[in-house]
C-alpha cells in the first residue's frame, strides 16, 4: 500500500494475464539516480493470509536500495493489485510471478520470499532456473509438507458455506481487533512488537474490494502442496531463514526440508524469539543476516 511505503519509494504497474500487478520500487530521492534501472534486481515476495501485501518487506528493502533495483509487488488478489473474482489456484501465482519477473528483470534475479510464496518460488526456480540468481527464503512451506497439513483453524464445510464465508472474512480480517489478534497470536512471537502501523497496513489491504477471494482460497487450502516432493530438484543457490517460534511451520520442518537438498540449500539461520515473519518482527536483525547473501 503506497501510504505505508518508505520515503523515496513509489509504485509502478505491469499487466499480467490476471490483471494489473502493482509493485514498489525506487522512484524519488534519496534512492533514484540515472543508473537505478541498471542495478541488479532484488525481488521481495510477500506471504499470503488476510491483509498480506508488499508492506511485509517495507522495513527491510530500503537497506538495499543503493545497490539493487528493488521490486516489491502486491501479488494478484492482494494489496493494491487486481483482485479478480475467481477460485485462485497454485498455477495463478506461478504464472503471474513469472510474468512479473520476465517483464521487469533483464537478468537473473535474487528473490527474497516468505512462507507459502517462498515455496512457490522454489517450484518456479525448478521450472525456469534461468530466471533466478539465488533465493533467500523465510520459512518456506507448501502447508502440506510430508503429507502433513499445517492445520486449518476452521473446517472446510464452514469456509465453503455461501454467505458464511463472507461473514468469516468480515469477522476475521476486516476489522482492527481481528487483524491485531491474528498478528499477535499467530504471526509474531512477541505481541508487543505489533505496532499500530502494522495493524493499519494489514487492515487497509484486507478491506480492498474482493480481497476475500484470495484470502479464502488460502484458508481453504486450495494453494497448499507438499514442498518435500519438489525441493530435491532445486539447483539454484538458496539460504533459509526460520523464526524459532514460527507457528504451523515449525523450525523442525525447516531443518527436515533442508536435509533433502544440502547441495542447493547452503545455509540455515534460526532467528531467536521470532515468529513466521522475522523480517517484519525483527527487521534490523533480519536485514543484517540478509546482507551476507544479497
Key descriptive features of the protein:
single chain, 294 residues, alpha/beta, 8-stranded mixed β-sheet, 10 helices, 8 strands
- Helical fraction equals 25-40%
Count the E strands.
8
The largest beta-sheet arranges its strands as: 1-2-4-3-5-6-7-8
Q: Indicate the mean pLDDT.
A: 91
Q: Largest sheet, if any?
A: 8 strands, mixed
Broad structural category: alpha/beta
Q: Alpha-carbon distance between the termini?
A: 25 Å
Query: In angstroms, what is the radius of gyration?
Result: 18 Å
Q: Number of DSSP helices?
A: 10
Helix-strand pattern, N to C? EEEEHEHEHHHHHEHEHH
How much of the polypeptide forms β-strand, as a percent range? 15-25%
- Which blocks of ≥5 consecutive residues have pLDDT under 50? 154-159
The outline comes out as globular
Task: Describe the structure concisely.
With 294 residues, the chain is α/β, with parallel strands linked by helices. The protein is built from ten helices and eight strands.
